[in-house]
Each structure stands twice: as C-alpha cells, then as structure tokens.
UniProtKB/TrEMBL annotation:
Keyword terms of this UniProt record: Membrane, Transmembrane, Transmembrane helix
Keyword match Membrane: yes
Feature: compositional bias, Polar residues: 689-715
Native source species: Xylaria flabelliformis
Classification lineage: Eukaryota, Fungi, Dikarya, Ascomycota, Pezizomycotina
Superkingdom, taxonomy of origin: Eukaryota
Protein name: Uncharacterized protein
Residue segments, region Disordered: 689-725
C-alpha cells in the first residue's frame, strides 16, 4: 500500500504527501504504525469505525445478557420478577432498552425486597452503555491522537545555492527574491503563531511543533569583554535548550537515530565612547564606528560602520522629515577553528568583541529621520531626555513641533551566536559536541556521527549518522535563517517598535524595547528554521528557481528526504494499532455473540451441560414464548421448538387476542378449519363468515367444533374464571 499522491491544489496544503502506511517514530514502532489517506477516505473511515463500534456494543450486550441469564437460571419455582427479568435479558436488543425495562420492573415492585433483584443487571447495562458511548466518541482518537501528522514525499529534496552577483546576476536576484519571500512568510508566522497577544489568521498547525520554546534570560551578563558592553547585567540571552530533530523539526526517525540541536543567542548594547570617530567634511558629516576592520589592500577599512551625523539627518535645511523608518544594518564575523573565518565574515572584530567559541554579529540602529513621541531609557534606541524642535513640511504648510531625537547617529548591538549538535545514539553528554560557532559546532560533533567536517562540507558523508548530520546541519548554511540574516532582509520592519511607527514618528517604546525586538527577531529565525526543513524536502514550487537547486544524490540522503513530517488537514492519518485493536477486538466480540448459543446447544446435547439453563435461554426468546402461550391454550401443532423460529403445520390457525376486557387481554383459542377451507381464509371478515355457517368442521381433537370466536369468557378459555384474581 505504498503509493503516493499530491494534494489537491484547491486546498491550502499543496505539498506532495505520502499516502499509505508508515511508522511515526514519535509514537514508537508499535503505536506509531500509521495509515495516511485522503480527507474524504478519512471521513468515511471515521464514520464506519463509529458505526462498527455501535454494532459491537450491541453484540457485547448480548454476551452480557447470555452470561447473566445463565447465572440467574434456576429450575425451581420462581416468582414473576425472576421470569420477567429472564425474558428481558433474553430479548433486549440494546443496553438502553434493557435499562428502561429493568428500571420499570424495579419501580413496579418498589415496596418489596424483590425490587432490588433487577438492579445488578440494570447497572451492568448502564456500564455497558457508558463504556461503548465513550468508546464511540473516543474512536476518533485513532486519528486525532496523531495530530494530523503526515509524511512528505521528498521528490525534489536538496538545497539552494548562493550565486555570486558578479557571475550571474539573474540567478542572484532570483535567490534574493526566494530568501526574502521565505523571511517575510516566517515573520508573518512568528507574529501570529509565536505571539500570545494576537489572533491568528494563518494556519499555525503546519509544523509538527507549532512553536519552538525558548529559555529567555532578561538579566544576562555581558556576552563579551565587560568593558565593551553598556551594562554588566540586564542583557539578553536566548537559549532553545536541546530540540529533537524528530519531535520539533519533524525529521521522522527512531529515538537512537536523531539529532539534538541547541541554539544560543547572547546580546548586549555596546559602548560607543572610545569606539567612534567623528568626521566633518564640507558637504557631509558622519561618524565612524571602530569595532573591527574589513577589506584588504586598497579596499581596507579600519572602521566597522559609517553613519551620517545627527546634524545631517535631522537639522540640515536640505533634509526634510518625511515618512522615514529606522535604519538597521547588521554585519557578522564567523569563527572557524577558533579564529575569524574571513571567507564567511563581513569584518574582523576587535579583541574585546571577539569570542573563539561563537559567531559574532553587530547590528547598528540609526534613527534615519525618525523622531520619538516620548523619551525612553532603552539602551539601544538611545532617545534624548529633552525634546528638540523639528520642522515638519507639508504640501502647503510647515510647522515646528517638539519631538525627541536619538542621542547618537547609530547605536550598536553585539550578539554572540552559538550552536550545539548531539547524537542521540550515544548516551549522556558524551554524545554532544561543543557549544560553539556554527562551523566549529559541526566540526566538533562530526566524529560523533562517524564523519568529518570535510565530508560534511563536500556532501560526501557515507555513513547513516554522517548523512543525518550533513542533511540537518546543511539547513543552517544554505538558508538565511540566522538573526543577522533576518535583520538584513527585514530591516526596520523587523522591529516590534515598527508597529507604533507612523509618518516618521515613533510612538512610546518600552524601557527594554531592544530586548522585545530581538526576541521577535529570534522567533522569526526559529520559524525560518522550521520552514527550512520542509523546503529542503520538497524544493521550490517555482520552476524558475530549479536552476539554483541542487538535489541530494545519495540514497541515505534521499531516505531522509522522504522522512519529513508536517501536519495537514487535507489528509487523515490513523493509528494502525488503534484501528487493528478496534476491528480485531470487535470482530472477536461479534463472533462470540453469535457462537454462544450454538456452543451452548452443542454442550447441552453432547455433554448434558446445564441443560435447563440452555433450554430456558432458548424458550425465553420472543417467538418461543409465543409458541408456549399458543400451546398452553391448545393451539397449533408445533415443531422446531428449540430453534430460533418455531413452526406449525401448514394452514393451522393460532389463538388471537381477546380484547373484551381491555384491562386484561388474553389469548383465545379458535376452531381449526379444514386445510382446504383455511387456505381460502384471508381476513377476519371471512373467519366471521365461517363462524356463522352451520356446517360442522373438524377440530384438532376430532370433536364437533364451536364457533370460531366463543361468546363467553368460560367458552373462550377453560378455567378462565378460576385464574382471575
């Protein structure tokens, strides 16, 4: 049953989904056996399962009735409650009908001790009803317990290249467009699905884990040399803790074949005193920030960042305050083998900003013409405490207003970025690599996965653990999912403060607004990471991007490609264990209910086992009780008296109901006619006609017959008056 089908493009789920059986390792090998079908088939299966459980409920009740009937069966003389209870147990088709009759029987005898005798059977019926009603409702858990998880079909599994703008500009801008779209989507997801304060209009049930948890420390120490941070405390440290490749990212695999991944971001506003140089030129003034150098040869720069002076941005007569936004730019310095990796870095940080166990990035925030409605003590926005007069120029007017301006042209934020990879196949801390920069974290963990960093970087890992590390780790190199990349893509719109920015006027901001901003950027990064694993498995939907895409070539990588889980409402996934348990147990109960009487009959006839109990069960059936009543008044020549349906001779009439006394109806015997005559009788009107005839007919005893309907109670039933109370 291993077939594949692409989802209906009319639905919101346009990913190719594996249809058939598979093992969801989040639930284990046995309980994780899963069946995925289309939504229509899933709805039919749920409905059929509920109907099946209802039918099993009826059969199970019949089993209880048989057992209780046998337990209560006694050959001695018994009162009416006994016989009525036995008849109820024999003929009730469902627990609810039995409850109604048994409770009524108790109520009729409520002043007598015998009223308690039907109660145990009523309680058992009630328990049976409750049990199977709950089972019917919980039957949907065979699907909902799996949380709608499905397996992707990784037909285009691979990674996207990073083309150089100097070699192929068309490919480069396709790449930029692709990454920008992914970042925008992640920002929307983070805003609506990671926030507790917004109403989501997006489908937040796409990933196996809706949101990745983070340990947030708002009072962290300085992540660098204490001299370069504005504060020794009150900084921000974000730590995912160890996240499971299966449970959190949906990479389906057994517990001992997974990766545990950890990401730590540690940020603090940086000092600017002693790290800046002001340059005043005839036509421009700017400030240089010295946190490291970049470039080589003639392109060497002994500064990190350049920002226009406040006088140029806010007070130059040639500048107008318009619909500006914050300007935020980020540069990074990657570490490899404990030193700055120049090929992957924008600058070489100074010693007080360098860490050999982390990648570093610095984000510069500039007002860029934005004014503030209120002062703020935030250490990154750096808003003045006293207002300034700002000229507002419109189409046909100009106005001078008081506003608060930034204290500095740009405000730097330094962050240390760390990663850690662990092999779940190795117990304890021995299975974890170092908490370090991305490249050193991969290199340190590579031996634990039976591979090397060289094999990782060249996509040449041959072992299954090595392929797992290469597949998982490559996501962080080929997708722009770091906070620094998010800042580069979103700019000022990535800040939470942007939501209260209008017409270049920034509304009130919190005293720790920078922490709120970076928590949001961190959440966008996590959402991007979740998306990246799905994008790796299915590839880009736009065919024009296929030229940038490289498919994984090894069989081990392709196996991982087909192991990506997501959640989908366009398909239904069922626990095979749950389905098999329901249907196998149900079939056994159904068979048991149908075999009880034949087995009882066999034991009675061959072994003489509980003959009376068997005969009582048989004769308490509705049609057998009818036979007994008819025989009691001498009507019918009966056969098949131990079968489901007893039979009379052809053409025999049976006693009918006498309703002359509506409060005490009884059966009345009738006079038999000849077979030839009876074959012609089709209605009671014809029977009345026969009664009026004077001709004699033969009764079963051979005596002269009486009218078909006797005229008195004594004639109707011998001994009738004696039995009247």
């Amino acid at each position: 049953m291993d077939t594949f089908a692409a989802s209906d493009l009319s639905t919101s789920d346009q990913y190719p989904i594996h249809v058939g059986t598979w093992v969801n390792w989040s639930r284990g090998k046995v309980f994780g056996a899963t069946l995925t079908v289309s939504r229509r088939e899933a709805d039919l299966l749920i409905a059929f399962t509920s109907f099946f459980i209802a039918y099993v409920s009826t059969c199970t009740w019949r089993i209880f009735c048989f057992i209780l009937h046998r337990i209560y069966s006694s050959p001695g003389p018994q009162d009416a409650v006994y016989h009525q209870r036995q008849v109820i147990l024999r003929n009730s088709s469902s627990p609810e009908s039995a409850i109604q009759l048994l409770i009524t029987l108790c109520r009729l005898n409520y002043l007598k001790l015998r009223c308690f005798r039907p109660l145990p059977a009523a309680v058992i019926a009630a328990l049976c009803l409750i049990l199977f009603t709950a089972a019917g409702g919980l039957s949907s858990l065979v699907s909902t317990a799996i949380s709608g998880q499905v397996l992707l079909q990784g037909t285009r599994c691979g990674y996207i290249g990073d083309p150089s703008p100097w070699i192929d500009r068309n490919k480069y801008f396709k790449y930029i467009s692709y990454q920008s779209e992914k970042t925008d989507n992640a920002a929307n997801y983070a805003q609506q699905c990671y926030s507790d304060n917004t109403t989501s209009f997006l489908n937040c049930n796409r990933f196996v884990t809706e949101r990745l948890a983070t340990n947030i420390d708002l009072d962290a120490p300085c992540p660098f040399n204490a001299s370069i941070c504005r504060n020794d405390a009150g900084n921000l440290r974000l730590d995912t803790g160890f996240l499971d490749s299966n449970d959190h990212f949906g990479l389906n695999s057994p517990a001992n074949q997974r990766i545990r991944w950890r990401h730590v971001l540690h940020c603090a506003p940086l000092q600017t005193a002693g790290y800046t140089t002001e340059v005043i030129a005839p036509n421009d003034s700017y400030t240089l920030y010295h946190y490291g150098a970049y470039g080589v040869g003639e392109e060497y720069r002994n500064y990190t960042y350049r920002a226009s002076s406040l006088n140029v941005v806010y007070h130059n007569s040639d500048k107008k305050v318009t619909y500006a936004n914050h300007l935020i730019e980020s540069i990074r310095a990657d570490v490899k083998n404990g030193t700055t990796y120049s090929a992957g870095s924008d600058f070489v940080p100074i010693d007080s900003l360098f860490r050999d166990d982390a990648d570093t990035h610095v984000s510069f925030l500039s007002g860029n013409g934005v004014t503030y409605s209120e002062p703020s003590t935030d250490e990154w926005y750096r808003v003045a405490k006293e207002p300034s007069t700002v000229l507002w120029i419109g189409a046909n007017q100009q106005t001078y207003l008081e506003a608060y301006l930034p204290l500095e042209p740009a405000s730097p934020m330094g962050c240390a970025d760390q990663y850690q990879f662990c092999n779940t196949g190795i117990e304890g801390d021995d299975g974890c690599g170092p908490l370090a920069s991305l490249r050193d974290a991969v290199a340190g963990a590579a031996p634990l996965f039976n591979t090397t960093y060289a094999e990782f970087s060249n996509y040449e890992a041959e072992s299954e653990p090595g392929s797992l590390l290469a597949y998982f780790g490559n996501v962080f190199f080929t997708f722009d999912i770091t906070v620094e990349s998010i800042i580069s893509q979103l700019g000022g719109q990535g800040l939470l403060s942007h939501r209260t920015l209008n017409a270049a006027i920034q509304g009130p901001i919190a005293s720790n607004q920078w922490q709120l901003d970076f928590i949001h950027l961190w959440e966008v990064s996590l959402a991007s990471t979740q998306t990246a694993f799905i994008d790796t498995a299915v590839g880009p939907a736009d065919e024009t991007l296929r030229s940038l895409w490289t498919d994984y070539a090894t069989s081990k990588a392709n196996k991982l490609c087909n192991s990506q889980k997501i959640r989908s409402t366009a398909y239904g996934s069922f626990s095979l264990f749950g389905l098999l348990f329901i249907f196998i147990l149900g079939i056994l109960l159904i068979l048991t209910s149908y075999l009880l009487q034949p087995v009882s009959k066999f034991l009675c006839e061959k072994k003489g086992y509980k003959t009376y109990a068997h005969l009582e069960w048989t004769t308490n059936a509705a049609l057998q009780l009818q036979r007994l009543a008819q025989e009691e008044i001498g009507m019918g020549t009966w056969s098949k008296c131990l079968d489901t349906i007893p039979a009379t001779r052809k053409g025999e009439l049976l006693g009918s109901l006498d309703t002359n006394d509506p409060e005490h109806p009884v059966l009345r015997p009738v006079t038999q006619k000849t077979v030839a005559t009876l074959d012609k009788v089709t209605s009671f009107g014809e029977i009345d006609t026969l009664n009026s005839q004077t001709s004699k007919t033969v009764s079963p005893s051979g005596a002269s017959s009486k009218p078909l309907y006797p005229s008195s109670q004594t004639d109707r039933y011998p001994g009738f008056n004696a039995r009247r109370p």
